[in-house]
Amino acid sequence: MRMPLVAGNWKMNKMASEAVVFVNEIRPGLRAIPGVEKLIFPPATALMPLSALLDGSFSLGAQNLFWEAEGAYTGELSPKMLREFCQFVIIGHSERRTFFHESDLDVHRKVKAALEVGLRPVLCVGESLAQNEAGQAAAVVSSQLNAALDGVQIKSPGDLVIAYEPVWAIGTGKAATPDLTNTIHRNVIRATLQALYGSEIAEGIRILYGGSVNAHNAHSFFVQPEIDGALVGGASLKANEFVEITRAAAQS
């Protein structure tokens, strides 16, 4: 069975000191919920202080990385720098693709670089509203997966997480329907992973949903058999909300 994973992407929110206070607030609640992996993606400035709080109640991830190990890349953070403090990294988020013009090739390079140092990518894929309305969701998501994972070896299902985040649902309050999301996960994402890695690996890779997930709708997503958790945005900045979403994953 795939263990549910609930991840909070804080984006560009919370000072390092605020992050420490927040994590100390949610740790007891997270620790009391069994059977779910909990993951926090704070801003890079908070990774070091939060890594000192790692006690098994949560895992830690970075929101981005650069694909080179070192060099003259002002402002960038390498995979091995991040690996010192965390276990996961978000790659291919729609905000990176849109605002920073990251290409499929950039995403591919980052996935390879993360895996080489033992960081586990949370690879984000998803279609825009125009693509969705044109009936292109399956083609777009499959293309993004194939481009990101072309020639990438996955030795264990736990090495990779996929997050399906339809762009039109991120931060808009318009969540995709659970049954439609489950269909995309099964017929597009899982099917593409099977073609790339075979059934045994593909069946073990967790596929999350992201896009306006909150404590009120989380359960309806988590009861779907192909939805293995959530990549939570705004709701992850609220202590009670994030704990309740995690509890919904355990109950489902």
Topology:
Elements: E1 5-9, H1 16-31, E2 37-41, H2 47-51, E3 59-62, H3 79-83, E4 88-91, H4 94-99, H5 104-116, E5 120-125, H6 129-133, H7 137-149, E6 161-164, H8 178-197, H9 199-204, E7 206-209, H10 218-222, E8 229-232, H11 239-251
Parallel strand pairs: 1-2, 1-8, 2-3, 3-4, 4-5, 5-6, 6-7
Helix pairs in contact: 1-11, 5-7, 7-8
Summary, kept brief:
This protein has helices spanning 16-31, 47-51, 79-83, 94-99, 104-116, 129-133, 137-149, 178-197, 199-204, 218-222, 239-251, and strands at residues 5-9, 37-41, 59-62, 88-91, 120-125, 161-164, 206-209, 229-232. It is α/β, with parallel strands linked by helices and 252 residues long.
Q: What profile does the largest beta sheet have?
A: 8 strands, parallel
CATH architecture verdict:
Alpha-Beta Barrel
Give the radius of gyration.
17 Å
Proportion in helices: 40-55%
CATH class: Alpha Beta
Strand content: 5-15%
Find the CATH superfamily.
Aldolase class I
What's the helix count?
Answer: 11
**What's the CATH topology name?**
TIM Barrel
Please describe what this structure looks like.
The longest helix is centred in the C-terminal third of the chain and has 20 residues, at 178-197. This protein has an 8-stranded parallel β-sheet with strand order 7-6-5-4-3-2-1-8. Helix 3 links the parallel strand 3 (59-62) and strand 4. The protein has one domain (5-251): TIM Barrel. It has 11 helices and 8 strands. The relative contact order is 0.15. The model has no long low-confidence stretch (mean pLDDT 96). The protein is globular and about 45 Å long. By secondary structure, it is α/β, with parallel strands linked by helices. The chain starts with a strand and ends with a helix. It has helices at 16-31, 47-51, 79-83, 94-99, 104-116, 129-133, 137-149, 178-197, 199-204, 218-222, 239-251, and strands at residues 5-9, 37-41, 59-62, 88-91, 120-125, 161-164, 206-209, 229-232. Helices cover 42% and strands 14% of the residues.
